[in-house]
Write a structure and sequence with these properties.
4 helices, single chain, mainly alpha
Length: 186
């Protein structure tokens, strides 16, 4: 019977050791991935984005050279660069896992598959044409009609209606600025 007990204890010790080693490898992998970032730059080096291993934007640099570009074009480039950087995250995870927990680990493969679905390949650059500029800029509530162009107006512009003045209550003898205990409904 003592041989069975000794064998059982060795088996439990081996399991414990394996679990501890696996946990240490996963902690090393997590620490390595957590500190990693991915940076992408525009072809003309006017825009640079950096995302962390979770895909969150950590840095955005836009040079003064973009001042001549349309804002729609600049924002489209920023979004494209963020997508490009995020699409590299699964590769970053796969490399970190290969060096720490191995590529045959089922859990590691699930993490990579999840990252690939969360951060798919970025669409080709041709598919991301910046939106056409708006011809008319409208400011204010949506229900207002836009003003007619000056050439289509037939009568001279009228003065806008003036707001009615707010009637002021006359001060009575009973009003006393120092008395805060009285009724406000007098």
């Amino acid at each position: 019977m003592p041989d069975n007990v000794d064998a059982s204890e060795r088996m439990v010790d081996n399991w414990t050791k394996q679990i501890q080693e696996t946990a240490a490898r996963y902690q090393a992998m997590a620490a390595r991935v957590q500190g990693q970032t991915v940076t992408e730059r525009s072809k003309d080096n006017t825009i640079e984005v950096t995302v962390d291993s979770k895909g969150l934007l950590k840095n955005l640099v836009i040079s003064e050279a973009v001042s001549g570009k349309r804002m729609a074009e600049v924002s489209a480039q920023v979004m494209r660069l963020v997508q490009l950087a995020q699409s590299r995250i699964p590769e970053l995870l796969q490399q970190a896992m290969a060096e720490t927990v191995g590529t045959t680990d089922e859990t590691a493969n699930r993490v990579i598959t999840e990252a690939q679905s969360t951060f798919p390949e970025a669409p080709p650059e041709e598919d991301l044409a910046p939106p056409e500029p708006e011809r008319h800029h409208r400011f204010g509530p949506e229900e207002e009609e836009p003003p007619l162009p000056p050439s289509s107006q037939t009568s001279p512009p009228q003065n806008p209606p003036q707001p009615k003045p707010i009637p002021r209550r006359r001060r009575s003898q009973d009003d006393d600025d120092d008395d805060f205990g009285g009724s406000i409904l007098s």
